[in-house]
User: Which sequence fits this backbone?
């Protein structure tokens, strides 16, 4: 394949060619350095018709900063309202559970489980260690 003219590369960049032509140019660009360099030049000079202006980003940032989207006073008031709402909810649930007798049932259940004697893990470990030491003493005394 001969070298690709600049006009065809412009059409290639805007996808104005058939799929077969697009794939042939794809393949050619991978093999021909001269055409690939021309392609890079076309891309560098390529402009989108509906692109944004150079000051678009700066203007957008300025509008965001001056807008009331991030109004700190409003955010603080909303935060305080949420916190107070959570406190009132917690207080209301506490009163409800107290008057319904739920807390008494919980206390009763926990006191019943506390009556069952359990040996702690550290006490079990100490007992096993003592048994092993006693066995060693008996073997040494024999």
Assistant:
């Amino acid at each position: 394949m001969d070298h690709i003219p600049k006009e065809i590369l412009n059409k290639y960049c805007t996808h104005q060619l058939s799929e077969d032509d697009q794939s042939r140019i794809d393949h050619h660009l991978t093999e021909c350095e001269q055409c690939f360099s021309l392609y890079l030049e076309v891309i560098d000079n390529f402009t989108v018709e509906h692109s944004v202006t150079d000051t678009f980003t700066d203007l957008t940032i300025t509008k965001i900063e001056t807008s009331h989207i991030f109004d700190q006073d409003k955010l603080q008031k909303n935060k305080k309202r949420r916190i107070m709402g959570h406190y009132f909810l917690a207080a209301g649930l506490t009163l409800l559970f107290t008057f319904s007798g739920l807390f008494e049932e919980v206390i009763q259940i926990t006191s019943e489980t506390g009556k069952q004697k359990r040996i702690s893990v550290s006490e079990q470990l100490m007992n096993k260690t003592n048994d092993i030491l006693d066995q060693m003493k008996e073997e040494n005394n024999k």
In short: The radius of gyration is 40 Å. Residues 69-118 form one domain. The mean pLDDT is 84.
